[in-house]
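Figure 2 data, in text form.
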Amino acid sequence: MPVIMTNGIRTQYHIQGSGPVIIFVSGLGGTAAYWQPQVDAFANDFTVVTYDQRGAGLSDHPAGPYSIETLTDDLYALITALKLENPVLIGHSTGGAIGQVLAARYPTLLAGMVQYASWAKSDLHFNWCFRMRRALLVGSPLEEYVHGSALFLYPPEHINSHAERLSPALLASASRFPAREVILSRIDAIMAHDATALLPLIQTPTLVVCAQDDILTPPYQSRLLASAISGAELKIVAQGGHSFSETQTSEFNQIARDFMASINRLPTESRSY
């Protein structure tokens, strides 16, 4: 992956394909790798941009404090440095929070936005979830933290049927983690996020989507987002958990593709994926 300086850090990014631009913005893990099933599906018809966020993957891991505002500044710097013209932002969880701030600050920057399994402001349920994840991170080996975190990401059926594949992948991800202090600072950033005053400012065409069985950002969080963003469409799917794009990839990709078509960002002669 190439490297570019954005907002004072080195950012690893990847561009594949051609056509209208989609930039995929990851959740707490912050890595481009999360979106590989979408890169494979969309690069035939779109310019697909992914990147490792500050404190994640192969981008720089400066000491905190971190904030959603800083992560937004990083993304804005990346979009402008790469001269991405009116991209559509698809943001998962933390990536959705970044999208909220970006769209409110720069009303004409994005052609569209997908808020996927995201939230506008932490509440008691959200804080209880991350209280547990912080405790795992501080008091347990990283291997236990990633396995414990998976319980918030995937439905029970998915873990039960994919455990033999999931566990090695989780262990491999733990070996690439940044310092615990960086992860804790990223958790602090999302727990402090509050975009309730910004959402009414958003003019970007927006789709809000989540799974009914998402226990980390339950559907009521998506309903709150959709009700506060003018003209936003809400779609709640039956199952898939917090990482619905991974557990129900074909369904997620079709929803995203339908949204691209609805805002006239689908190429005229779209190829099969």
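Caption note: The CA atoms of residues 209 and 255 lie 9 Å apart.
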